[in-house]
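re the bet — no i am not wrong, look at it urself. input seq straight from the record:
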Amino acid sequence: MIGSLLYQVLRKLLSAPAVLLRCEAAKDAELLVLRHENVVLRRQLTWPVRYEPADRFWFAARERFAEFTAAWGGRYPAIVRLWDNAWAEFVPFLAFDPEIRRVICSTNAIESVNAASAARSKPAGTSPTSKQRSNASTWPS
């Protein structure tokens, strides 16, 4: 029991650097293998595959991300890492209908405009309240 547990822990510890140090070519090869597995699994089905809209959006987003990585990954590797690390938070967004996603994005844009206009309209100095003015006038000399 303990030997099996130690084996599993050691295996995970030794595989972690391999995952972290993979190059972009290895990630692209993994995507190709996943696409090939998908094609093979489709051939084994006798009925047509009907993906849910969220699945289709996920595949399209992942493919576009691979194109982005190929085009800009060498010049901006930090952005590629940022998107790759944030992919788990981004994928649930794809489950919404396109209309809802559009509203969410436009709501974020509206909020940022409102925040920018509020920052511009804030006066440089704040005037003291009446209580502060009364306290200042009774200040001992």
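see?? The chain has a mean pLDDT of 75. told u. also Residues 105 and 124 are 31 Å apart (CA to CA). so pay up
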